[in-house]
Design brief:
- With 271 residues, this protein is α+β, with helices and mostly antiparallel strands.
- It has helices at 2-9, 16-25, 36-53, 65-69, 81-87, 90-100, 174-186, 241-250, and strands spanning 27-30, 71-74, 104-115, 122-125, 138-144, 155-158, 191-193, 201-205, 210-212, 221-230, 267-270.
- Helices cover 30% and strands 22% of the residues.
- Strands 1, 2, 3, 5, 8, 10 and 11 form a 7-stranded antiparallel β-sheet that branches. The chain has a 4-stranded antiparallel β-sheet with strand order 4-9-6-7.
- Residues 262-271 have a biased composition (Polar residues).
């Protein structure tokens, strides 16, 4: 991994236009963040761990909407040195800090999101529904591990919806898809749905509403994500059972009112 790990440690030239776009729209897509060589070096290890650690055994047709959306495996970095190297990338973390406008960022957790061939829609939702954070300074990098055409179900965003508070109390569900589709359209938030080139990634805020279409190809849509939080983030009192579970699982030993500081949340970049 040493030939490509150097790219993960070098700075990406993030321009002011990209930072401004992120602030205005709640997301940004960035081309050529990772080279094809780097993706090719790490994808087999990430995919291997997804297969090894996946606990979803039901056939697609027997799952609920959430289960049909993707196979979800979290904190792969705890199970693999190469994945730890990938998730800890200063290159990726520095972009997150620059976009958030903070001095340093911590790891919240990682998630592999593999949408199987025939996998269904990922309903409209905002990630921060699940996260007990006191501010909105949290961001997800979405890293496709292959070129991702429209028929594979790339991530799509409601532009500017990070300012929209309606629907923030909805988990990923058929209800969130129905309610948010109507509400976002009524507010004229443009849906930005585009393919991803190999090496192109996106960053979106925790309150930016997003969804994804089904995967209508005959191969899985392989995606790795890393969630970053402001290193000074304070934990808010959980307001739902999902936030209670996240506090227990991803910030063990921390409590509401603490700064995020558990052993699972190392600082990945500091300016």
């Amino acid at each position: 991994m040493t030939l490509t790990s150097s790219e993960l440690e070098t700075d990406y030239a993030l321009d002011r236009a990209a930072i401004a776009h992120f602030a205005e729209h709640g997301f940004v897509k960035l081309k050529n963040v990772l080279s094809p060589e780097t993706i090719a070096a790490y994808e087999p290890e990430i995919t291997g761990k997804v297969i090894e650690l996946n606990t979803q055994q039901l056939p697609l047709e027997e799952r609920d909407t959430y289960g049909k959306a993707f196979l979800q495996v979290t904190n792969l970095w705890q199970h693999s040195e190469p994945v730890l190297e990938f998730v800890s990338s200063p290159r990726l973390a520095r972009i997150a800090a620059q976009l958030l406008g903070v001095r340093s960022v911590r790891l919240y957790h990682d998630q592999a999101l593999y949408k199987e061939s025939g996998g269904g829609v990922t309903p409209w939702h905002a990630d921060q529904y699940y996260w007990p954070f006191a501010t909105d300074r949290c961001v997800t990098v979405w890293i496709p591990l292959q070129e991702t055409p429209m028929e594979m179900g790339p991530l799509a965003f409601a532009s500017g919806s990070h300012t929209f508070e309606h629907g923030r109390d909805l988990p990923i569900s058929d209800e969130s898809e129905r309610v948010l589709q109507e509400a976002l359209a009524a507010q004229s938030f443009a849906e930005i749905s585009e393919p991803f080139d190999l090496g192109e990634v996106s960053y979106h805020l925790g309150w930016t509403f997003h969804h994804a279409a089904p995967n209508n190809t005959d191969v899985p849509r392989r995606v790795m994500t890393v969630i970053y939080v402001d290193a000074e983030m304070e934990i808010a009192p959980p307001v739902n059972t999902n936030q209670e579970a996240d506090l227990k699982n991803w910030m063990p030993g921390n409590a509401a009112g603490d700064r995020v500081s558990s052993p699972l949340n190392p600082v990945l970049y500091s300016s």
